[in-house]
Amino acid sequence: MSFSLRFRAAIVSVVLSLAFIGVWHIATRSTGSVANMSPEYAKLMGLTATQGKSAMPGPMDVGAQLWEHVKRPFYDNGPNDKGLGIQLAYSIARVATGYFIAVLVAIPLGFLIGMSPLISRALDPFIQILKPISPLAWMPLALYTIKDSGLSAIFVIFICSVWPMLINTAFGVASVRKEWINVARTLEVGTVRRAFTVILPAAAPTILTGMRISIGIAWLVIVAAEMLVGGTGIGYFVWNEWNNLSITNVIIAIFLIGLVGMLLDQILARFTRMVTFPE
Amino acid sequence: MSIFDDPLDPQRRLARGCICGRHRSAAEHERAERTLRYEPVQSEVQSDEKRYEGVVASAVMRAVFPRDAARRAFLKSVGASTALAALSQFFPLKTATELFAEGATPEKKDLKVGFIPITCATPIIMAAPLGFYAKHGLNVEVVKTAGWAVIRDKTINKEYDASHMLAPMPIAITLGLGAQPIPFAVPAIENINGQGITLAIKHKDRRNPADWKGMKFAIPFDYSMHNYLLRYYLAENGLDPDTDVQLRSIPPPEMVANLRADNIDGFLAPDNICQRAIYDGVGFMHMLSKEIWDGHPCCSFAASREFITGSPASFAALTRAIVDATAYAAKAENRKQIAEAIAPANYINAPVTVLEQVLTGTYADGLGGVKTDAKRVDFDPFPWQSFAVWMLTQMKRWGQIKGDVDYKAVAEQVYLATDTGKVMTEMGLSPPTTSYKSFSVMGKAFDPGKPDDYLAGFKIRKAS
Question: I want to staple B183 with a disulfide (CB 3.0 to 4.6 A). Which of A7, A41, B101, B305 is the partner?
Fold first, then answer.
């Protein structure tokens, strides 16, 4: 009997996750050893102190809490307490805004850099210096100059997701096969038409790869930015629950951040497949 | 406390009179003592309409009988209620009271107020769920903020109209320490006392601070009472806080995790953080900040001068709401209700038990004992200018300010004692008549009139 590779891989995945949850459960069991304390004192203390409960929540706690969130994803208890669905929506909206501004800037600029060796050399030092800067390093500067925390978060997303797209676009445009350009030239195709009908389709796979890297970075950045500026978003949720030392909720948030990041990546991967062409 | 005077009380004495001097009368002194001992006190909860009615009525009374002696004789002979009834016959007291409570229409009704999720912010936070802002005609959104630097920047950026700040912060911002100088003002102190020194459980046998050399402590911010109090306490015990121990600025929520991870040995932190460390079994209460200086201010309610001059009526309404909430929080019998109101995730986001222990003052000390101290945290809005002078002396002592300081000028610019006094009088509370008072910190007297002499009296200070 032989199963397909896919099926066997799925079985291994399930076994691995079960093993992980099992180890997690055993590692976080209550120790049961409790110091003697008077009942009135015990009433004032937390479960960690009174029942020897592990400070780290077990998989059961996380599961129960996750179910609570899934049941009510869109509640709104005021400005500082909203459901996970609303928080995720805020984060995604911020990421989308910053990311689309970055797309609008990076792709035309990337074309320009790719098509003109002069601009490429002139802008190179700026790109090289700005590219490796951490998002959190931008934050104080953004808050101080833009004077609006929502816009600052979007700015930080923009500034961090623009570079991979810019570099990939420039690279894709510059490495379009010379023959195709020459054919276009012999047919006397104008610059603008050449850019749209020859270079764009040829460079599209590289550009989309850049966009895929960027969306990953944007999603990484939003959590950090929201932890700093607060108010709304999944990053704020993590911070708020950290504030209450609710590790259970922090674990749930980590899981969701991973899930949404994966979905965003898959969407871009699908687009990439759509524009890929065999040579 | 003396703020809650009844203006219609014919017995009201002009001079303060009780054994300790802190209460209006011997009866009030007795009542306060009882509260301290947790004995039932005859309820004297007064609704606010009653209080405003009192203010208006007493103004009318005073106009009708300008002479104190005549007014008292009249009140004594017929009783306050009869006198009021007689007055309202020819004066529309009800309408006047309603008009008075509304005040001027605020220029801006929708306001944003930032806060840090600690019990120091109690009046600011509870004013939202318990409706104090709404009562004063405002629609206030209280916004939780990640840390002191962020709350400072957001208030400077005008994202918040006013904010919860550590008491020394508005002074530091006005002087341009750690930020560009922007004139800020403090209309109300949020809380007095309510902090504590918490140490890791492993230090439970090292209670003498003289043995703390080399330990690492966390404080919430450089410009905080926590920083000054911890430095003061260490220095009084012969340790130089700059060279003998390490002081780190850590946001309060991260303190408990750091204590658990053994990165720090203890902290002087705002409450619910201290109690949270105990609740989670990682620390114990070495001492309450009250034992260093009973009645010290901690956090303040602050706004920029620009907001105050731009929207004076909104600012006045905000001040009234905060003073009102503070007066409500000062009453021990309201504390349980407040703990429940501010515990949800929208506000402080902490277990109710922890907040209750902080606010009611019956708490687990982390070493197996239950302690009671009704004044563990207290609320008194009056922004004493002498507090500001003391903070300035400490800023200078630890090298945050270099050169000469005009203590009085700064204190009077930032701490709006006169204005708040006026608001309190209008609301029927009785503010102190002066804005400077002497107090003692760890047994050492502080005279706000001689800050330089006070400063010169410290042996341990940063060499400048």
Answer: B305
What tens digit of pLDDT does each residue of B84-136 get?
666 665 555 555 555 555 566 788 889 999 999 888 899 999 999 999 999 98
DSSP B105-172: PPS--EEEEEE-SSGGGHHHHHTTTTTHHHHTT-EEEEEE-S-HHHHHHHHHTTSSSEEEEETTHHHH
Q: What is the pLDDT of residue B18?
A: 59
Q: What is the DSSP string of B285-346?
A: EEEEGGGTSTT-B-EEEEEEHHHHHHSHHHHHHHHHHHHHHHHHHTSGGGHHHHHHHH-STT
pLDDT, residue B38, reads: 46
Which position has the token pair 């503070």? B326
Is B281 in Cβ contact with A45 (below 8 Å)? yes
- Rounded CA separation B353/B343 (Å): 9
Give pLDDT, residue B345. Answer: 82
Q: Which residues from A are below 8 Å from B253, CB to CB?
A: 242-245
Which of A32, A46, A35, A47 is closest to B368 using CA atoms?
A: A35
Q: Of A44, A78, A143, which has the smallest distance from its Cβ to B153's Cβ?
A: A143
Closest to A80 (Cβ–Cβ): which among B144, B363, B368?
B144
Q: Helix or strand or coil: residue B262?
A: coil
pTM above 0.80, yes or no: no
Per the listing, tokens 């239950």 go with: B370
Helices (H) and strands (E) in chain B, counts: 20, 16
Looking at chain A from residue 84 to 123, which residues have their Cβ under 8 Å from any Cβ of chain B?
none
pLDDT digit string, tens, across residues B14-70: 554 556 666 665 556 666 655 554 444 444 445 555 666 666 666 666 666 666 666
Domain at A84-275: CATH architecture: Orthogonal Bundle (1.10)
Domain ranges of chain B: 1-42, 46-102
Q: CA of A41, closest CA in chain B: separation in Å?
A: 6
Question: For residue B279, which residues of chain A lie inside 8 Å, CB to CB?
Answer: 44-46, 49
| A31 in B contact zone (CB under 8 Å) | no
Is residue B172 over pLDDT 80?
yes
Nearest alpha-carbon partner for B140 in B287, B314, B11? B314
**Distance (Å, whole) CA B456 – CA B459:** 8
Note the pLDDT of residue B153. Answer: 86
**For residue A205, how many other CB atoms are within 10 A of its CB?**
17
Q: Is B142 on the interface with A (CB under 8 A)?
A: yes
What is the nearest CA distance from B364 to chain A, expressed in angstroms? 6
* DSSP SS3 for B191: coil
Tell me which chain A residues have a C-beta less than 8 angstroms from the C-beta of B280: 46, 48-49, 55, 245
Q: How many CB atoms lie within 10 A of CB A116?
A: 15
Quote the CA–CA distance of A46 and B352 in Å, as a whole number: 11
Q: Which 249-278 residues of chain B touch chain A by CB within 8 A?
A: 253-254, 256-257, 260, 276, 278
Provide the total of helices (H) and of strands (E) in chain A, helices listed first: 13, 0
HSE toward the beta carbon, residue B293, CA cutoff 13 A: 24
Amino acid identity of residue B419, one-letter, is D
Burial string for B343-365 (b: 16+ CB within 10 Å, else e) reads bbbbbbbbbebbbbbbbbbbbbb
At residue A265, does pLDDT exceed 90?
Answer: yes
